[in-house]
Specification:
Elements lengths: L3 E4 L3 H12 L6 E5 L10 E4 L9 E6 L6 E5 L3 E7 L2 E8 L2 E4 L1 E6 L2 E6 L2 E8 L2 E8 L3 E7 L1
Parallel strand pairs: 1-2
Antiparallel strand pairs: 2-4, 3-4, 5-6, 5-13, 6-7, 7-8, 9-10, 10-11, 11-12, 12-13
């Protein structure tokens, strides 16, 4: 039930705990000292300037909502895959697929692009909703299939 973890663990321990980290509430924060979590790029990294070498690197990870899968939007379908906070996928309308761009999770906040439209919003369970900007504006929503 913790939403903040401050850790100084060896890589093997971090690797074993990664599934538990991903089960934490989206938006939870994990602060690791020196060693990172394999395959997961930190959301923020800072190196302290002092005499603490080599343990001066602090890494912040923000637990992303799990969004991999198929989602139904008003006009088409999103099919998403996820590697921690980085999201990949396609948007399909009548069998024509377009790759989504610049997709990323920050806790339960999502952002991605489709063509000339930028989508931002929040994920809550099996629903996503938010705002569009660019070539198309207004509200948008999606439901997990």
């Amino acid at each position: 039930q913790a939403t903040v973890l401050a850790l100084f663990l060896l890589p093997d321990n971090l690797r074993r705990l990664t599934p538990a980290f991903l089960d934490m509430q989206p938006g939870s924060r994990i602060v690791a000292n020196y060693f990172g979590i394999d395959g997961w790029q930190p959301d923020f990294e800072e190196e302290m300037k002092s005499d603490c070498e080599p343990w001066c690197v602090i890494k912040l990870y923000i637990v992303p909502a799990r969004i991999a899968g198929k989602w139904r939007m008003e006009q088409g379908d999103l099919e998403l895959t996820q590697r921690f906070q980085v999201v990949f996928g396609t948007y399909s309308v009548n069998g024509v697929k377009t790759d989504i761009t610049n997709a990323r999770m920050d806790g339960n906040r999502i952002r991605f692009g489709i063509g000339g439209v930028q989508y931002t919003g929040r994920v809550q369970g099996n629903r996503m909703e938010g705002e569009r900007a660019g070539a198309l504006t207004g509200r948008w929503g999606a439901v997990r299939q």
